[in-house]
């Protein structure tokens, strides 16, 4: 705790600071709660997407035998050319939100390429899109956890340090100023009595 100045000015400054801390703390606590809830929501969503990914992966594996005869352009058709990500504000944090993966159009001669290629390309694209969405979700969870860590530190700073320190400083300053006032009154009474005694002596003489 910083050295306290035992003055009326310091008392006012500390009281003002305490009011600010007590006004700001509920906002921080609310933000912490919102972040915790959003992290849980994002974790549930990631779990759902991972389960969907496992399901799609099993379906893709069913095509494994046919992939031996896959056309040359297949890899290019299932590789995203762009991942579109938006942003959503959660408790003052810009959270990345997966929108979609865009792919090059699969252009081929329908008389040469096997009929199963269309279905295979769609399935692969679904799997790749899910994988990209999971990556964005994990990035968002990291962002939220970092912000939660910072917010929790601030809540603890206000709850456990700033507010108790301010209250203790106010208590000590009030005691000191009260003692000073009592001493001043005592000195005033002594001075008054001495003056009265001096006046009385002069009258007697």
Explain this structure to me?
There is one protein chain. A two-stranded antiparallel sheet has the order 1-2. 72% of the residues lie in helices and 11% in strands. The model has no long low-confidence stretch (mean pLDDT 86). The radius of gyration is 36 Å and the shape is rod-shaped. It has helices spanning 8-61, 74-77, 116-204; strands at 80-90, 93-103. It has a single domain, classed as Orthogonal Bundle (Helix Hairpins). It is mainly α and 205 residues long. It is built from three helices and two strands.
User: Can you tell me the CATH topology?
Assistant: Helix Hairpins
Task: Give the beta-strand count.
Answer: 2
Category from helices, strands and their pairing: mainly alpha
At the first level of CATH, the class is Mainly Alpha
* Radius of gyration over C-alpha positions, nearest whole angstrom: 36 Å
- Number of discrete domains: 1
The global form is rod-shaped
Short characterization:
The protein has 205 residues and is mainly alpha-helical.
Could you list some keywords that capture this structure?
mainly alpha; Helix Hairpins; 72% helix; single chain; two-stranded antiparallel ribbon; 205 residues
Strand-helix topology:
Blueprint: H1 8-61, H2 74-77, E1 80-90, E2 93-103, H3 116-204
Antiparallel strand pairs: 1-2
